[in-house]
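LOG
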Amino acid sequence: DFWSSVALMTGRYHGAPMPAHATLPVTWAHFDRWLLLFRETAEEVCPPAGAAHVIERAERIARSLHMAVEDAALVGVRVAPSLR
């Protein structure tokens, strides 16, 4: 449903991906690896224009999710000392 909504604008996905990913212990290396696998798969199963379309969106989503993860980590670092 998520990728149907992202790639085809179907509106099938109604979740919240940011909160689901923001607290995961991942680095840019994880996103980079995911993007590599995503690009390979998209180029294998989609026509060239379709692959380019979903890859561009995947790259944008990866950057956004990575920023959310980094922001959550910074908030955790700032909040933790005040909890003592």
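LOG (cont.) second protein
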Amino acid sequence: MGRYVLKRFAFMLISLWVIVTASFILMNAVPGSPFTTAKTTPLVQAQLERKYGLDKPLWDRYVTLLKNLLKGDLGISLRERGRSVNGIIARTFPVSLVLGAEALAFAVTTGLALGVIAALYRGRGLDYVAIIIAILGVSVPNFVVASTLQYFLGAKLKILPIARWEGPAYHILPAFALGLTTLATMARMMRSSMLEIVNQDYVRTAKAKGLTPTQITWRHCVRNAILPVVTILGPLIAGITTGTLVIERMFGIPGLGRYFVDSIYNRDYPLIMGTTVFYSALLLFMTFLVDVAYGFIDPRIRLAKGRAD
């Protein structure tokens, strides 16, 4: 098991290095300068580039970036009045994390329950309702859901606040809009997995032994059907936690997503790289944790990999 964990960890580090390198190359391939404005003279622009090291050769800047990343230093923002990228992330990511956690809790609990109900009532009304919700959740973008909720529940009916981040009531609409796609994915996966499990021989044996439907569902069906869902849980957790960019913008939430979008518009190189590295590391780490957890849940995974090696 230790060898399996080390290999997955090494793969995570290599993937992160590839992402950092590709992001650095693409970012610097775009022509122009972050200091190019109508009010900035060429002389002032050259002095600013010299101050922040943008006049150095690309290779030197790349090596400096890697050295700073190894030390945990993400640099100084070019547009946020000299504030460090580490400080910006430390101040704003907790807001994004809270929103992501609320959306994830709503998506996982509702999605799993919906998938189980749809499988148990296959071909009936509840199954069709679950399928419709799953299709809408996957096909409709979250910004469309968000704007619809803002219009009807906020502006029209005045049930919930439209925007800002001031109390529990302000969390409901953005959490729902953000979690709907994940909910639909979880429901579809759980339904498909449950439909495979309910026809297994050990389920028929449990029925023959006289176990109640509730016992069969929770002890045999859900317990085994949830294993495939675990494999997508890591990327979904990271995705829903970091995928708040548009939602934060629409609801006026002071999270990290707003800074990530603004950094691209402003060509704020350190903030672009810092947020990209942070998001990528979080996604890769969550995937790594799921791989390790799945190896513990189902030992056949690590054993199969060990034989393949």
